[in-house]
Amino acid sequence: MERMSSPESEHTAPGPPGLAAQAVPLVAPQLRALRRRASLTLEAAARAAGLSPAHLSRLETGQRQPSLPMLLGLARIYGTTVSELLGETVADQDAVVRAADMEPTAAGGWTYWPAGAPGRGMQALRVRVPYGSQGDIVRVHPGEEWLYVLEGRLRLRLGDTTHLLAAGDSAHFDSLTPHRIVAEDRGGVELLFVHTLLQSPTAALCLGPVIGDMP
What we know:
Distance between the termini: 7 Å
Strand content: 15-25%
Low-confidence stretches: 1-24, 198-215
Mean pLDDT: 76
């Protein structure tokens, strides 16, 4: 299993250096302004985020590029969203998503229907997982995930533990935990799925590679 580094050690985001360098000045002033809006000292915010005050200070002054796990943690502490930390603005959107507007997308054998508005801090999907599809793929990425089994049975592996979920069962977990989703029965499984992985070009710079086959 690939060794996961601590949040504070993930100060360099993979990706083109030019893009990462451009992102720093946009994030830094927001980090400081939102910390002050939350009435937190540098020391208190750093302690809550599991960082040293010196490291958080370097993030706020643009000397270091924060990783997505850091941004997710700071957003929770400051009572805001990662989008606001990044200075992104989201246009007004309808609160209701109609079934007729849920266009399916197929990828890797799975079928996805959007169940929420794009550009939000959370993404909601209805997902159809056929039997035997992507069963060897282990996923590891920043954020949280919640899933609810609508139909069929799901075999969910979280770290070293395997769970069998039936219709009506749900799971909520930190998606930095290596996880694998497999349809248990030949009829496949249908899920309602929500995750907090930020849909942002800047955040994409902070994502590491997907781990390969599960040992």
